[in-house]
Input
Amino acid sequence: MRPSDTIDSTREARRAAVIAVVRAIPPGVVLGYGEVARRAGLPRHARLVAKVLGTADDPSLPWHRVLRSDGRIALPAGSAGAREQARRLRAEGVDVVAGRVRQRPAVDTLDGALWAPAE
DNA sequence: ACGATGACAATGC
DNA sequence: TGCATTGCCATCG
Output
């Protein structure tokens, strides 16, 4: 490996951390960007999470389970991505109405709370 | 180095 | 609920 890679890896490491967290989200569960950032050990990096998901090319990544903190789909309403996301969520049993999820992304729900520990 | 940008979040009205 | 404002922070030109 080139020495420059070791230094650049800070960026890669964060990206990897975010990817790992997103991949760990179980079906039917949704999290906010800020939450994901937290779980990735990067508090206040919600926007970075967005960037990562946007540039991630891994098709097996369940990026559709990441929403805004208010339960809204982050992608522009009507856009191909937004429709795709809503479609996938419903396929997992998540209620999506008008680009919004009928479930609190917050760790308010029992499922979310129980999911918190571990690792 | 500097300002603009963005799949964000919290707060206030 | 919706919209505007402010704060945050990595990226990019």
Q: What stands out?
A: Chain A has one domain: 3-115. Strands of chain A lie at 31-32, 66-67, 96-97, 100-101.
